[in-house]
Prior knowledge:
This protein has one domain. It has helices at 2-8, 13-33, 37-40, 44-67, 72-96, 103-127, 131-135. 82% of the residues lie in helices and 0% in strands. It has seven helices and no strands. Helix 2 packs antiparallel against helix 4 (44-67) and helix 2 (13-33) packs antiparallel against helix 6 (103-127). It is mostly helical.
Amino acid sequence: MLQRLFKHFQPYTIFCIDAFGASISLLVLFAVIIPYQPIFGMPVDALYNLGIFGGVLFFYSNTCFIQRPKQWKLFLVGVILGNLGYCGFSLFLLIKHWNVIQTIGAFYFVWEKIVILAIVLYEGFILTKSEESLKA
């Protein structure tokens, strides 16, 4: 049933998946990492900056899913660039604050990058497909 629902909304499902991933990142960031910041080590101002960036990506992906733009591939490129930008910004903050990052914080931020990059690879795969092949 879920698979049929996803096929019905193709190619826009990828925007929903991306928004869901951004919402999970935001939830973990604001419900776990910020309240327990000393355990993770990343400074609070850096965490809020990541939250703002992630919130913008969440809003963008949700808007693309709801609006269903005809030029969806162009908007998907925007999602991919946004995700890569988030990874780059997060990696910059990780390196900048490495001396205060705790082991669990390093582990979380590195794994988050791996997950996001896997999603970016899948989005790139979707980008190469035609709309008809996605619905088949």
